[in-house]
Amino acid sequence: MPHTHDDVGWLKTVDEYLSGSNQASQHAEVNLVLSTVIPELIKNPSRKFTYVEMKFFTMWYKTQSEETKAQVKQLIQEGRFEFVNGGWSMHDEANTHYEDMINNMMVGHEFLMKEFGVKPRMGWHVDPFGHSSANARLFADMGFDAWMFARLDYQDKEQRLQDKSMNFIWRPFSKHFGDEKEIFTGIMRDHYCWIQGFWYDERFDGDDPFVDNEDLETFNADYKTQLLINYIHEMADTYRGNHMFMPFGCDFTFANARMNFDFMDKMIKYFNAHNNQNITLMYSTPGEYIDSLKSDVQNISWPVNYDDMFPYADNPQDYWTGYFTSRQASKR
After folding, report:
1. How many Å from the N-terminal Cα to the C-terminal Cα in the chain?
2. Whole-model pTM?
3. CA atoms within 13 A on the CB side of 79
4. Where are the domains of the chain?
5. Is 142:165 a contact under the CB 8 Å cutoff?
6. Out of 127, 145, 262, 291, which one is annotated catalytic?
7. 190 flagged as catalytic
């Protein structure tokens, strides 16, 4: 699932992130992400991409030519450029008042409906630090088919991997609503970035590309194919059903979309031709993944979650409780 996560303000201002300015603070340029992804999608009808943050998208979109805007609309209609969440930003769930959560989503959704006639089907909260029943309730009321996130407490994650309960039905405030308010929820196994061995992007000094030319000394397609096979089997041991979700991307990635898509094209083609595991790789989106799970002929039984997911800790030493409100002066 090719995607980018573009914080609406973090180490730089929003304007700096869009334009690429202040590279000393962080190498990131959202303008290039969107400007290179769209033509690369047009080149190959099998390619797909997922985008989230409407603040950045609206700033980019209003400066584009009518030709580019028409291409974006075409890709949206074809289901190859999918908006998920669609809020102005990806709001926090621990400190934000519910009215601000609603307004954040409303502003982004109003733009998408007015400009493209679409409403996002998927919630997407890959980076908030902990998850609240209030947010699950609001996303259910907003009509999302499901939502996905990446961060949960390390102990909760360990147990869910054992129980195969990384995907579940969330029924927030069930004492009041019973099963009237519920939403399908998916948790990513290893955060929202590439899996180990496949970090290949101009932003990172990461892993080697997927090299399928056997005439080169750098040929590594067999090795990387085996890495993928091993990882997929690990996922199959911890998730229900036969559809596995692997995010490809990370923070502010795909500024060189040709580099990313060429990598994935080669990987998908070689893997599908050379693995003997009855496994198929394909480009997909969060919506397609959830549709596959829900329509699966396996008739999967999903566990149910009722409470919130606070406090959140990465490990025994790293609790995020109060990270916004404590010691403001020392944190600046």
Report:
1. 36
2. 0.95
3. 9
4. 14-297+304-309
5. no
6. 127
7. no
In the numeric block, which tokens belong to residue 200? 């290949």
Give the pLDDT of the chain (332 residues) as one tens digit per residue.
Answer: 999 999 999 999 999 999 999 999 999 999 999 999 999 999 999 999 999 999 999 999 999 999 999 999 999 999 999 999 999 999 999 888 999 999 999 999 999 999 999 999 999 999 999 999 999 999 999 999 999 999 999 999 999 999 999 999 999 998 898 888 999 999 999 999 999 999 999 999 889 999 999 999 999 999 999 999 999 999 999 999 999 999 999 999 999 999 999 999 999 999 999 998 899 999 999 999 999 998 866 789 999 999 999 999 999 988 888 776 666 677 66
Mark 154-179 as b/e (b = at least 16 C-beta within 10 Å).
eeeeeebbeebbbbbebbbebeeeee
Q: Is the dihedral of CA 177, 178, 183, 186 positive or negative?
A: positive
Q: Where are the beta strands (DSSP E) in the chain?
A: 49-51, 81-83, 122-125, 146-149, 167-170, 183-187, 304-305, 313-315, 318-319
CATH tag for 14-297+304-309 (out of 3.40.50.300, 3.20.20.450, 3.30.70.2690, 3.20.110.10): 3.20.110.10
- CA 13, CA 17: separation in Å to the nearest integer? 6
